[in-house]
């Protein structure tokens, strides 16, 4: 009697549990079709109801399992005839019913969890899409500003490179001019060093000319005096 009572209660609970899962999926589909901005998972009451019913069904399954174990112990006891086919058939039927209810419960629970997980994922994706749509204008504006700033930086880099190239060319020209000036300075120093020797030579030549002129003048004067003395005598 206890097993039948629990089985009837479990049957009703499992039917309600299955309807809850079906209504959960239908409600989410309807909300998703009616409005794109409606959150997909705003039925927290259904989630709480699911958790409550799952706990109740698990407790009933546990009680029914305990009763089946007690019936199995009774059939295995020494005072019960081992060849009572009706008793063994009744026990096997209760075991099959327990197995079916357990399988149905786990299947319905797994389907519900899969639906909820799928809705959570879809809700997250939809929220991301909505946030992207709402912020697309701002993102485009920011992107445009970033591109303009990037272009300004590229122009600045190009101007800096050109300035550096001009500075390098100027440095090379100044280095070349410096070498030329050093060469000219060395030549001028060489010439300046040679000029005193030339001046000394010219001075010596002039001194010799003066000396020769003095000697020649003296000879001419002596010859003239001698001629005059010879003429007057």
From TrEMBL:
This is Golgi SNAP receptor complex member 1. It is a single-pass type IV membrane protein. It comes from Podiceps cristatus (Great crested grebe). GO terms for molecular function: SNAP receptor activity. GO terms for biological process: endoplasmic reticulum to Golgi vesicle-mediated transport; inter-Golgi cisterna vesicle-mediated transport; protein transport; vesicle fusion. It is found in: Golgi apparatus membrane. Involved in transport from the ER to the Golgi apparatus as well as in intra-Golgi transport. It belongs to a super-family of proteins called t-SNAREs or soluble NSF (N-ethylmaleimide-sensitive factor) attachment protein receptor. May play a protective role against hydrogen peroxide induced cytotoxicity under glutathione depleted conditions in neuronal cells by regulating the intracellular ROS levels via inhibition of p38 MAPK (MAPK11, MAPK12, MAPK13 and MAPK14). Participates in docking and fusion stage of ER to cis-Golgi transport. Keywords: Golgi apparatus, Membrane, Protein transport, Receptor, Transmembrane, Transmembrane helix, Transport. Belongs to the GOSR1 family. One of its GO terms (cellular component) is SNARE complex. InterPro entries: Golgi_SNAP_su1 (IPR023601). Residues 24-44 are annotated as: Disordered.
């Amino acid at each position: 009697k206890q097993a039948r009572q629990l089985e009837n209660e479990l049957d009703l609970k499992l039917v309600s549990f299955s309807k809850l899962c079906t209504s959960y999926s239908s409600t989410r589909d309807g909300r998703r079709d009616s409005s794109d901005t409606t959150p997909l998972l705003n039925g927290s009451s259904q989630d709480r109801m699911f958790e409550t019913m799952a706990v109740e069904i698990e407790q009933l399954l546990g009680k029914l399992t305990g009763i089946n174990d007690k019936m199995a112990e009774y059939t295995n006891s020494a005072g019960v005839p081992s060849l009572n086919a009706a008793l063994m058939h009744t026990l096997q039927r209760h075991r099959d019913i327990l197995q079916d209810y357990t399988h149905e419960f786990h299947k319905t629970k797994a389907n519900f969890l899969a639906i909820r997980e799928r809705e959570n994922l879809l809700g997250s994706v939809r929220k991301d899409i909505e946030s992207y749509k709402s912020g697309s204008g701002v993102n485009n504006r920011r992107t445009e500003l970033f591109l303009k700033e990037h272009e300004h930086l590229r122009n600045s880099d190009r101007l800096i490179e050109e300035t550096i190239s001009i500075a390098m060319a100027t440095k090379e020209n100044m280095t070349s001019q410096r070498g030329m000036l050093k060469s000219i300075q060395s030549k001028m120093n060489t010439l300046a060093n040679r000029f005193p020797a030339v001046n000394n030579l010219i001075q010596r030549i002039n001194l010799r000319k003066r000396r020769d002129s003095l000697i020649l003048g003296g000879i001419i004067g002596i010859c003239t005096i001698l001629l005059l003395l010879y003429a007057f005598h």
